[in-house]
Specification:
This protein is an alpha/beta fold. The protein has two domains: 35 residues; 167 residues, Endonuclease Chain A (Endonuclease, Chain A), CATH 3.30.870. Helices cover 46% and strands 17% of the residues. It contains seven helices and seven strands, in the order αβααβαβαβββαβα. It has a seven-stranded mixed beta sheet with strand order 1-7-6-5-2-3-4, with helices on both faces. Strand 5 and strand 6 form a beta hairpin. The protein is elongated. Zinc ion binds next to helix 3. Keywords: Hydrolase, Lipid degradation, Lipid metabolism, Membrane, Transmembrane, Transmembrane helix. Pfam families: PLDc_2 (PF13091). This is Mitochondrial cardiolipin hydrolase. It comes from Agrilus planipennis (Emerald ash borer).
Length: 206
């Protein structure tokens, strides 16, 4: 009786920790992949000063060309399956405008928070976005700047949620003349915080 039970008992006692260790090791590996693999940084500096024309002519001079960066941004926006939540101080780029309208027309939930002062600028695309039916909100004209520059994609989806944030306006100058950066990430803990802030602002604003 005793020996009949002892064999499975010994086996399960020795195998269980092994399975647990393998499981935890695998989980850590998956976590590391998600945390590090899809972080990408774009830096705009003096080497981009000739790239203004490249942005205007859709020409790519190098991997660090402003046009390469714009293509990266457009690819990011076009990858949205459910939502685009954009918070942007200044937006003048036609291709970004067109991509947002295209997404909106494909039943993607596009929402934009913009700066009220910047939106009055004739080169700004914010009023045009509004006229295409995209919901836009702005901060009260109280002297504060809606200075954020970030964009969430499919942020309620833990697996496919994405974010870019940084200092760069979506303008010709932002991508070619200023010294700025954009960070792309799929790290969910950051996405979650930006998403919470976006929803908070969206509730607060008219
Ligand atoms: C740039 O040119 C490529 C190839 O002709 C085209 O597919 C793409 O839509 C163009 N992009 C912009 C932003 O005009
Ligand atoms: C619009 O913004 C640009 C810079 O992006 C600036 O040069 C221009 O003076 C502004 N126009 C108006 C009417 O404020
Ligand atoms: C963004 O664009 C505005 C308007 O052109 C400009 O005043 C500002 O310096 C730009 N850069 C940042 C980081 O806001
Ligand atoms: Zn270039």
């Amino acid at each position: 009786m005793f020996s009949k039970l002892a064999v499975p008992l010994v086996i399960s006692i020795s195998v269980t920790p092994l399975i647990l260790v393998l499981y935890l090791k695998n989980r850590r590996k998956q976590k590391q992949v998600k945390d590090t693999d899809c972080i990408k940084c774009i830096f705009i500096t003096a080497r981009n000063s000739d790239c203004r024309n490249h942005l205007m002519n859709n020409y790519t001079c190098s991997p660090s060309c402003s046009m390469t960066y714009l293509i990266e941004i457009l690819k990011f926006l076009k990858s949205a399956k459910q939502t685009i939540s954009l918070c942007m101080y200044m937006l003048t780029l036609d291709s970004v405008y067109e991509t947002l309208v295209e997404a909106h027309n494909s039943a993607i939930n596009v929402r934009v928070i913009a700066d009220s002062e910047m939106s009055r600028n004739t080169s700004s695309k914010i009023i045009s976005l509004k006229s295409k039916g995209i919901p836009v909100k702005m901060q009260p004209l109280d002297g504060s700047l809606m200075h954020h520059k970030f964009c969430l994609i499919d942020e309620t989806d833990v697996l496919s949620g994405k974010l870019f944030f940084g200092s760069t306006n979506l303008t010709l100058q932002g991508l070619s003349s200023n010294w700025d950066q954009i960070i792309f990430t799929n790290k969910y803990s950051i996405i979650k915080r930006f998403s919470e802030e976006f929803e908070y602002l969206w509730q607060e604003l008219n």
